[in-house]
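Reopening this ticket.

The earlier resolution said the output was attached, but the attachment link was broken on my side. Pasting everything inline this time so it's all in one place.
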Amino acid sequence: MAGWSPSRGVAWLLGGVAWLTAAAIGAVLAVFFAATMVVIAIMATALLAVAGMALRARRTVRADKASDLIEARNIGGHSWVAYGWDGRR
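Inline output:
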């Protein structure tokens, strides 16, 4: 062969090593990306579950009756007088 040289074989060998290295790095990155997506999916599921529980709890909790409110009046400066607290249970 007219185009054959000793460095051609070394170039093929180094090219194969570079290709294998690139394939291995690509595989590691693919696994890392897949694991990242799994973690994001788990966190999103947990977020939706907590939001659902919060909405369910919000629906079940009823507001206190208006009669349970106390009234406070400012009598000057930083002084306040509260009414209606002595009738609370």
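Reporter confirms the inline version is readable. Residues 10 and 16 are 10 Å apart (CA to CA). The first helix runs from residue 6 to 60.
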